[in-house]
Every structure is written in C-alpha cells, then in structure tokens.
Amino acid sequence: MRTSIATVCLSGDFQEKLDAIAAAGFNGVEIFENDFLTYDASPAEVGRMVRDRGLAITLFQPFRDFEGFPEPYRSRAFDRAARKFDVMNQMGADLVLVCSNTSPASLGGIDRAAADFAELGALGKKHGIRIGYEALAWGRHINDHRDAWEIVRRADHPNVGLILDSFHTLSRGIDPNSIRSIPGDKIFIVQLADAPRIDMDLLFWSRHFRNMPGEGDLPVLDFTRAVAATGYDGPWSLEIFNDQFRGGDTRMIATDGQRSLVALLDDVGRMEPGLKIALPAMPERIDVKGVEFIEFATGGAESEELIALLKRLGFSEVGAHISKSVRHFRQGAINLVVNTDADGVAHSNYIAHGTCAYAIGLLVEDAKDTVARAKVLGATPFQQAVGPMELEIPAIRGVGGGLIYFLDKKEPLANVWSVEFEPVADETSPYIGLAAVDHVAETMDHGEMLSWVLFFTSIFSMTKSPTVDVVDPAGLVRSQVLEASNGAFRLTLNGAENRNTLAGRFIATGFGSSIQHVAFRTDDIFATAEALERNGLALLPITRNYFDDIEARFGLEPEFVDRLIAHNILYDRDENGEYFQLYTNLFGAGFFFEIVERRGRYSGYGAPNAPFRIAAQKRGLPDKAVPRL
Question: Which of 82, 302, 402, 509 is most buried, judging by how many CB atoms fall within 10 Å of its CB?
C-alpha cells in the first residue's frame, strides 16, 4: 500500500514537513509548489532530501490555468509548462497536477481542452513527465470529474491521465459511483480529503475546512470504494487545506494523516475483499463492551478527600492492591481505582496534573487484538514493570498522556480484581443507586479535537454525533459525542478555544488535557439525590430562573418542578424520552461527577442544560486559580 501526503497539509518549513511525513510512515509526498519556492534549496537538493528520508515524490502541484486559452495566453501556458517540467526533472518528480482552468480568459469546449492536453502530453513525454488533470469544484468550465475524464479520454495520450480528489467530487454532490467506469490505469493519483457539512462558497470551504478522512461528514468511504473498483493501484494521497492543521503540531497531523488512510483503506478492503489494496494486517474495528474501571491518581491529604467524596457517593472499598498503594471501590457495575503509589505513571500524572482521572479500563472482546489494531494505526503502546502475581494489562496512551487499559473475559484478565486485589472488610457505604458509567467526558484544546475523534473512531467501532457548540459565559466550547455501536461506551470530547471558559480553565489549571467528568447512571434520580443529601454531599446549586424556564418550555406540572428544585436536578426531553442530571461541585483543577437518569429512548446528553450547569459551576469558583484538593 502506497500512502502519500501533500506538504500543504502540514505546518513548519519544508525539512520539518518531510521529517514528520517520513516518521508517520508515509512512503510518498506531494510537493506543493509554494513549499518548494519558499525553501532555500535547489530542485536537485530538494529531491535528495525527499529520497534520503525513504520517500518518493508522488506529485508536483499545482499547475494552474492551462487548458482552453486563446492566443497569446495559450503559448504562454505551454512555456510555463516547459519550465516546470525542467524543475521537475531536476527534482526527480514525474507527475504534475494540472487543475481545471478558472481564468475568465479561458474558453469552453471539450475538444479544445482535449487538443491542448494531447499537445501537453507530447511535451511531457519529451521530459519524462506525466500529466494528471483534475476538475476543480469551482472550475470555470470543467468542475466535474466526468467531464475531466472525457477530456483525458479524447486527448488519448499515454502521458495524460486523470487525478481524482474526493473533495471536488463530493462537495458538489456528484455520485462517486460514476468513477467505477473509468479505467484504473488512466487514474494517475487519488487525493483524499473529508470536510464537515457547511453551506458556503466551495473555494472557501475547500481552502479552510478540509480534514482527514473520517474526521468530517462527506462519504469518503463510498468514493474510495468506487476508485478501488476500477483496479487503481497507485498512491493514495492526502491533500488537506485546513487553517488549524497549518498551525498545529506537524508530527501529530502527519500521524493523523497516515492513521486516516490506513483505517479508510482497511474499511474498503474488508467491504470489497477482491479489490487490489495491499493492507497491513490488523484486527477489525474493536467493539467496546463497557467501562471496566476508571483510575484516579492522587496523593497525600488529597487522596483522603477524594475517598471521602467517593464514599458520600455510595462507593464501598472492596479491595487493596497486593503490592501497590492502590484501593478499589465499587458500586453496582462501577469500579473506581484510587492510586496513591509514589512511583510509576500514576504518580507522574499526579505530579503533572494534581488529583486526576488519568486512566480508563475498557472491556473488549480481545485485549491483545485491540492493542494490535491500535499500534498499526499509530497509537503509542504502554507497558510498565509488573511485580509477582500482577497482571500485564494491555494498554495504550490516550488523551493528555493518560492511559487506556483493555480487559477481556479471558483468563487471566477476567480475574483482575481477584488476582491483583485482596478483599477489604470495609464498612459498606450507603448504596445510593448508581448502576453503571453512563459516559466519560474528556476536555482538551480545541486544536486537538479532530485528532482524538479520528483516534477513537479508527480504533473502535464508534459513531460520532454532530459537533455541538456549548455556550460558556466566557466563550464557546465545541463538543463531539462518540458512542460505541452497541451503546456500551459513550465518550464526549470537549474542545476549549480559550482559557477563560470552564473547560479552558481546567486545562490551564490541570496543566493539560484529561478526563474532566464522569457521569454515572441511576434508575431513580430522585431517590439517588435524597440518598446523596443524607450522606452529606452538597450538590451543584441551580438558579430558580432555570426551573421557571423549563416549566414553561416543557409545560411541566408545578409539583414536578418543585421536586426538581428540591434536589437541583436539571431536565431535558425530546421525542424519544426524558433526561435528568445532577452534579457535584468542582474539586481539584475542576473535575466533577454527574449523575443521570434516562427514561424512554433518550440518547442525548442534556446539551441545552450545559450553559446553566457551567454558569453555576463558575459561580462557585474562587477569584484565583482553582486550588487542588
């Protein structure tokens, strides 16, 4: 499998881009002309730099405004092409992208354009250059790959072929299945890009909002399947114009690009096993069967405060680790681990972030297969020394350097609680009805969100909901929900754009991205609220104005609203059911617990309530930074 990426996708200078592309595992690179022109090296030196990193130049691009010109523009276009071919010869590139003409001076006509390309093909043959023609979605006369293909077909020259770009096809709503009739050997390279669904000018959309396959909303999988069905066996390349990427971490974006291509082509190969796609061996997407545990890193007096909070939440201590300073708490199907060890990754996270939920354990069908897939997709595996009788639990690095552990029902992992923990005869905490983990919320810088969406959806069988804007008094927070196909694992990713929002303050005060809150599910939120109050747990106070509003908005009975007010329970409803939520107050850098009840088939997360929850939490903040526990 040959994968390639355009230098325009990445930030940094030309050398930094090449280093990141090679490190990510690509074997080809498209050289965007401006990246070459702004770099102080000769074409020959640039070619050597590429080859020294084990890369091939898959494409030199773009060559603009060529076909359909009257004189004298036509002659000038051929002169420009000859000069570009000389540069490419010195560089060691043999394929140039010619995009459809956008100049107002250009003339229409399929035959006129075909004649121009036949002549350009002859010129290219003298230089050893192949010419790929691409239909820009905003091309003046040619903006559809079907018309571009007809021009290539009529040009009938071995050095002239088609370049397909998923954005240019899909942004115009063109059926990608029309590609299936094109001979694969006449497709010279395929460029892939996704994008969110936005109603805007095509050129502006393309230049600023493209993203990696799997990060957007376009049917890139259908496009890729159609291309693969032609017998195409050339490079699969990325051409992503995105302001965020151009200012982001070069190596992270390159890694995302390779991950997106491998995951996409793996999907195509599994759906169309007879197609010509050489893929790295890896298990299929992983089904998450549930959250097995959440682990906290803490220490000193802070650990006792955390444990006191857990007990007020109804968790009982049921186990102590056989060799480490680690305690196990349980309620219903929820397992929480409190790690106060003075060594290891938990302690490192405590030193960096203070008390934090730094690790999550997921139950999967096969833990080793999960790590195997994650490694092929560029995830960082995690291992640490284990003592006698301890289990080596497969794990990878997650958001903010935290950990994702994997357990399955096979021995010995199925027995982790009895193997690694000794029972504790603790006084049982009053049970308050918490049954399971409903969802986990990770907070991060907004610039990281697309990367982590891709990370989770490429490794696990998860669907994503549309991005939601959560209103904070100090700005917007972008929220994206990911959910396992079986509903057993729900994850919300919240991207902060400034540190004045509650989410941004959490990142700044806790020194990095992390789990900010965990939501537990109950079957009776009123009984749970009453039990919490008996346990002495103060809940997040919500304003009376909020309750007056929902009473009018939903037509609620006053007696029902009084029950909500009595326990500071927020309410939402849609056509499928009802949703109830209450919150603890903030602790540490801004972590909190949520308790929810779902009635009917409600599948949301109470997004309309988020501004009221955030405002209430911010009212409880001190004037200065949030203190740690």
Answer: 402
Which CATH fold topology does 439-619 show?
Answer: 2,3-Dihydroxybiphenyl 1,2-Dioxygenase; domain 1 (3.10.180)
C-beta of residue 483 within 8 angstroms of C-beta of residue 463? yes
Average pLDDT, the chain: 94
Beta-carbon count within 10 A of 628 CB = 17
CA distances from 534 to 197, 228, 558, 582 (A): 49, 63, 25, 16
Residue 531, phi then psi, degrees to nearest 5: -65, -40
- Dihedral sign from CA coordinates of 385, 387, 393, 398: negative
Contacts of 75 (CB under 8 A, 6+ apart): none
Statement: residue 627 has pLDDT above 60? no
CA distance 10 to 494: 24
Q: Is 398 helix (H, G, I), strand (E, B) or coil?
A: coil
Q: Give the pLDDT confidence score for residue 278 in this predicted structure.
A: 67
Both structure tokens of 292 = 């097995």
Helix H or strand E encompassing 16:
helix 14-24
Instruction: Quote the pLDDT of residue 589.
Output: 85
pLDDT tens per residue, range 514-540: 999 999 999 999 999 999 999 999 999
pTM greater than the 0.90 cutoff: yes
- CATH superfamily to which 3-271 belongs: Divalent-metal-dependent TIM barrel enzymes (3.20.20.150)
Burial 236-246 (b: 16+ CB within 10 A, else e): bbbbbbbebbb
pLDDT digits (tens, 9 = 90+) for 2-19: 999 999 999 999 999 999
CA 98, 99, 103, 107 torsion: positive or negative?
A: positive
**Both tokens of residue 480?**
């994206």
Residue 42 belongs to what H/E stretch? none
What pLDDT digit, counting tens, does each position of 26-56 carry?
999 999 999 999 999 999 999 999 999 999 9
Angle 590-574-472 (CA atoms, 0-180°, nearest 5)? 30
Query: Which SS3 state, helix, strand or coil, does residue 158 take?
Result: coil
Amino acid at 573: R
Those residues whose C-beta lies under 8 Å from the C-beta of residue 608, and which sit 6 or more positions away, are 572
Chosen CATH of 288-423 out of 3.10.580.10, 3.10.180.10, 1.10.8.60, 3.40.190.170: 3.10.180.10
Same topology between domain 288-423 and domain 439-619: yes
Tell me which residue of 455, 461, 458, 480 sits closest to 469, measured CA to CA.
480
Expressed in percent and rounded to 5, the helix, strand and coil fractions of the chain are 40, 25, 35
DSSP 8-state secondary structure symbol assigned to residue 329: E
Phi and psi torsions of 580, nearest 5°: -125, 145
Q: Mean pLDDT, to the nearest integer, of 113-128?
A: 98
CA angle, corner 595, sides to 340 and 627, nearest 5?
Answer: 45
Between the alpha carbon of residue 492 and those of residues 197, 364, 496, the distances in Å are 20, 19, 13
User: Which residue's structure tokens are 């230089």?
Assistant: 127
CA-closest candidate to residue 192, choices 231, 150, 229, 221: 221
Secondary structure (3-state) at 178: helix
Q: Are 569 and 526 in contact (CB under 8 A)?
A: yes
Cα gap 445→576, rounded to integer Å = 33
Give the start-to-end residue ranges of the domains of the chain: 3-271, 288-423, 439-619
**592, 585 in Cβ contact below 8 A?**
yes
54 phi and psi, to 5 degrees? 75, 20
Question: Which is it for the CA torsion 47, 48, 49, 52, positive or negative?
Answer: positive
Q: What span, in angstroms and rounded, lies between the C-alpha atoms of 206 and 502?
A: 32
Query: Which tokens go with 37?
Result: 């022109």
